[in-house]
Amino acid sequence: MLTYIDKIRQIAEGFLKEGTVDMVIGFRRGTLPLMNEPCLIKRPEDVKKLVWDSNCGINLANYLTNRKEKIGIVAKGCDSRNIVNHIIENKIKREQLFIIGVPCKGMIDRHAIEALFPSEIEEVVEDESRIVVTGGGVEQIWSKAEVLQENCTICIHRNPVVYDELVADLVVEQKDVDRYEDIRRIEGISPEEKRDYFNDLLSSCIRCYACRNACPLCYCPTCFVDASRPQWVGKSQDPTDIETFHFLRAFHCAGRCTDCGACERACPMGIKVRVLTKKLEKDCLELFDWETGMDVEKRAPLRTYSPDDPDDMIR
Amino acid sequence: MKCVKIDKKLFAGGIERLQTSYRLFGPVKDNNFHDFQALHVGETPDPTMLNTRLSPKSIVYPQSELMFEYSLDDSKKDSHILKEIVADNSPRVVIGIRPCDAKAFLLVQHNFDTLEYKDPYWVRAYEATTFVGLACNTPCSTCFCTTAGSGPFHEAGSDVLLVDTGDYYVAKIITPKGENLFKLAGWEEEAGSDNAAGEIENLKQAAEARITTRVNTDKLREKRTTDLFDASFWEEFAFSCINCGTCTYVCPTCWCFDIQDEVSKTAGVRMRNWDSCMYPLFTYHGSGHNPRDNKTKRLRQRFMHKLKYYVDKYEKGIQCVGCGRCIRFCPVNIDIRKLCEAMNNFEPAQKSI
Ligand code: SF4
Ligand code: SF4
Ligand code: SF4
After folding, report:
1. What is the C-alpha to C-alpha distance for residues A175 and A177, in angstroms, rounded to an integer?
2. Which ranges constitute the DSSP H helices of B133-264?
3. Nearest chain B alpha carbon to A207
4. Are strands B129-134 and B92-97 parallel, antiparallel or unpaired?
5. Please, are residues A157 and A150 in contact by the beta-carbon 8 Å criterion?
6. CA dihedral over B50, B54, B56, B57, signed as positive or negative
7. pLDDT, tens digit, for every residue of B154-207?
8. What is the ipTM of this complex?
């Protein structure tokens, strides 16, 4: 995956020089280990700032919403599916986009490494299969597969679904993945246990909304938790209000979420918010045979009427 | 200044004795991160922490705080009258607070406790608190405290500063509050002050030498506010920002709040909750107009406030102690050190580029 960068730069430079695009959205090197920063490149001579490695977990589709320019965008599998969703929801037009597709091998879970490493992380070097972490005089080596973000370990669409250029050959998709082991477990517990589970899950939430704001789906001009005329949700640390935010947000993402993991990656408190959106993803798959962002021609199940709807209430 | 030596074996015993006179708060590890929590009997602050994820500001200034209660039941004599809710302001001690975070309370004090205005909630809680600082022998790579008006052995804001010398803590007693606390803990073995001072000085120099990043703030004061405000760099810095509340909520020196009424049937409370200048609602007017209607303006506000308005208004340096939390926890790697550099170096001529 490290070899992708030359190709990304080359394509981006070409696009900018030819005037195919006004700008390219990609990643630049961050100031901390395990962090790259989303960036906007406008001049061909700046494409050298672009980087690609296993720390590009932020979903770049989030930066497209309602933009009017012609845009080149670097997209791994999940970003590309969110781009499709954006196109379906009229947040961007396909014609505006020149998608630089990146066959992905998974992103590193920076929270997990920080937790596993005994000292402060000073440097992280990766090659194709391993990462070497150093800090405080300690060195530790992991195979990448061991430290991927959880959503990447169960990802079945690593290749971009739409693209104009590819930076490398497509990767082999993961097969026989059980995506919903955790969800089935939660489905199986009693209502009381569920209540305790959710209370515990969200107990450390500080309502910073990083999960929501990192999410490409959360583009509402005014989120329901921010609405003040009328105000729907209290703003304190009251657990009921915090849970209302999370549950409703998850429902708003039903049939739209690609499980890109940007929400969990963004959360400063390490809260596993994906279990909420994954439950709805599972329902959409089981009820409507629906996977998000696979086809620009198809409308999402909750925006479609069908006489075959499994629910009597709709029919 | 008096220095006291505490054998680490006797530390837990002293903490235990303090439980009868104070509510204790200290860094505890939970789910891979350290945060300040109430220490229960038998618990001691975890000495392995570098710094806590959230700053300890909430011990004095909770994220949600009740201010008044009222009744809307007209059959009651006191309906529609705001009655103050006074929190538990019994003495409390924060043990193991890092010098940057202790200093941060002094920066916040310029806002909450002035000659003109006193915020009674903050002032009462602050006055009830004794701060036992713990000097940093191993600062993090994101710490830039030494150029942000603080430092790994900085004393301002702490009532006592503990220095870890291996088998012992050497404690510098800074205020009468600190002295009183040490008496109650039974930590009274005086450290030979020459020796202790030398030992502390050596550790201090070693710690300061480990701080590798710095910010330059010397030119911020002389810049014209409007030049900085109109600077060309904001757009670029703001591109990746997602306008979450992370940076403001983890920051020990961010103090903004929002006041809300919540009514259930006829019982109402007025409370305040932390707010963030990164949120659109922060400046949303009753008219529907929002003067900071995009993320670039909101990001600019955060950094202009910390690095320019505060500097000009109080003449006490920047509104930042260099703890590095916003750098570590920002989901997209916005780095205040880069912003500070850009602001400090800004020349209006750059406008034309
Ligand atoms: S990012 Fe984490 S702490 Fe912030 S609102 Fe979301 S779940 Fe809560
Ligand atoms: S600077 Fe970072 S932490 Fe602060 S609002 Fe922007 S994205 Fe969130
Ligand atoms: S602005 Fe950032 S570095 Fe400065 S005190 Fe706040 S969190 Fe710490």
Report:
1. 5
2. 176-185, 193-209, 225-229, 234-238, 246-250
3. B245
4. parallel
5. no
6. positive
7. 999 999 999 999 989 999 999 999 999 999 999 988 887 678 888 899 999 999
8. 0.95
pLDDT at B49: 85
- Rounded to an integer, what distance in angstroms lies between the CA atom of residue B158 and that of residue B10? 22
Give the three-class secondary structure for B214: coil
pLDDT at B353 over 90: no
The amino acid at B28? V
pLDDT-derived band at B124 (thresholds 50, 70, 90) equals very high
Please state the pTM of the whole predicted model.
Answer: 0.95
Q: Tell me what pLDDT residue B196 has.
A: 83
Residues of A in contact with B262 (CB under 8 A): 234, 236
Tokens of B109: 């004090």
Pairwise CA distance, residues A151 & B137, whole Å: 38
Half-sphere exposure of B31 (CA within 13 A, CB side): 13
Residue A236: list chain B partners with CB under 8 A.
Answer: 63-64, 260, 262, 271, 273
Residue type, B301: Q
Residues in chain A, pLDDT under 70:
none
Q: Does residue B293 surpass a pLDDT of 90?
A: yes
Q: Which chain A residue shows the shortest CA-CA distance from B238?
A: A39
Ligand 1 pocket, residues with Cβ under 6 angstroms: A 205-211, 266-267, 269, 271, 273
For residues A149 and A265, the answer to whether their CB atoms sit within 8 Å is yes
- Asked if residue B350 has pLDDT above 60, the reply is no
CA dihedral A17, A18, A23, A25 (to 10 degrees): -90
What single string gives the DSSP state of each residue in A165-233? EESSPPPPPP-S--TTHHHHHHHTS-HHHHHHHHHHHHTT-----HHHHT-TT---SS-TTT--TT--S
Nearest partner of B154 among B97, B192, B113, B196, judged by Cα: B97
pLDDT value of residue B298: 98
Q: Given this model, what pLDDT does residue A255 score?
A: 95
Domain positions in chain A: 1-105+157-176, 178-303
Phi, psi of A303 (to 5 degrees): -115, 15
Q: Is A207 left (phi over 0), alpha (psi -120 to 50) or beta?
A: left
Mean residue pLDDT across chain B: 94
* Ranges of each domain in chain B: 2-56+88-209, 225-345
Q: Does A32 touch chain B if contact means CB atoms closer than 8 Å?
A: yes
Length of chain A: 315
